[in-house]
Amino acid sequence: MINIPKPLTVHDLRDWLNSKNENPIIIDVRERLETDMASLSFVDIYIPISEVSLEYVSSIISKHLNKKFVILCHRGIRSYNFAQWLIEHKLVKEVWNLEEGIDGWSIHIDSSIPRY
Question: What pLDDT sits at residue 43?
Fold first, then answer.
């Protein structure tokens, strides 16, 4: 069985965050310039993709063992690659990729989030 990140729409993430279920740990992998332009208040961890290393990411992820993770970026491509990297390095058990990223969140959920 091939293990890949699970797809998650912005609507499904909104519903998950508003549910009584335990919220996932949300990781934003956009670069600092991007997070300065637009950010989401519910992001738990920022790991710029340019700073990813096994040692650095392991030190952060290890504090959240047995949690569910949602990874986001601008449009969902870098976050998918990072989520796949997490799986390949066996750092997480369950990981979702936010399809359309923060841009999709701005388009479909909260238009007050700047688009870039």
Answer: 98
